[in-house]
Design brief:
The protein contains 3 helices and 24 strands. It holds the Pfam family Cadherin.
Length: 336
Amino acid sequence: MATGSLVGNIIQDLGLDIKRLRSGRARIFTEDGSEYIGLNAEKGTLVVAKRIDREELCKQASPCSLHFQIILENPMELHRIDVEVTDINDNAPFFSKKEYNFQVSESASPGARYSLESAKDPDVAHNTIQTYKLNPTDNFKLNVVARSDGTKYIEMVLHTTLDREKQEEHRLTLTSFDGGNPQKSGSVKINVVVLDANDNAPVFSQTVYRATVPENASKGTVILRVSATDNDKGANEELMYSFSHHTDGAASLFNMDPHTGEITVIGVLDYEKAKHYEIDIEATDKGGLADTAKVLIEVTDLNDNAPVINIISLSNPIPEDSAPDTVIAIHRQGAV
């Protein structure tokens, strides 16, 4: 109510008249010296002397009242007055923070609960907080729990599983509404960061890798580099490359860098001894999930051996009258 607004008529309420107010020098007495209510002795009315803030005066207490006395002299009279201050919806709900941050593992099970701070509203009764709303509700729902003392607390409940690989962060808005008319509201942002769980195995870029290498390749020669990816994040996406356990002879000729997937020559290759190698490889993440692939290495020949003729059968001596096409020797040609 504005300053000067009528609060009550003490002539009607107390059965006094204007003459008695004047002769008795009527005045208002308050124990705390507050001057919220003034007396207009000329009209016999009580008026608002200064702005009244119910929330400042009584906090959450209800009802909220002003207590004072009207004093008259000659003879002395005391009249106790109680003025109830009713609430208006002059405050909107608010949260103590602008936003709240949560970290939730993607392995969290539906039904997991996360406590939220309730909003505050200095108003009382229907003008204070009545409802809450969470948006969106694709993965989380709101649960409002009433305590025995009448207060409420709110929880954010996971109702569908999270998948970090599809969505790393969820942005929600929690809104609190009061029951006033017009209705007032206050909102707070909620950020949910989805923590990675090792739910994805590595995947090689190819199921079969092919490479060729000359038989005279020196030690340290890079043959090829394989690669795999893991959709997990952080430590769960770090991979280690290796030959499979059942790769036997190739391990003495080739090496695989566990971090880069690079395959190099470490032994002496010989086309004449082995023309190709078939190697099984693995990529393993730190959670133990793995993928396998195959590497086919072809060794190319070099002209590193002179021809050799081996005589199997020889006619010696040869008669001078031997006919054309007479077989004089049988030999086998090879290489060292």
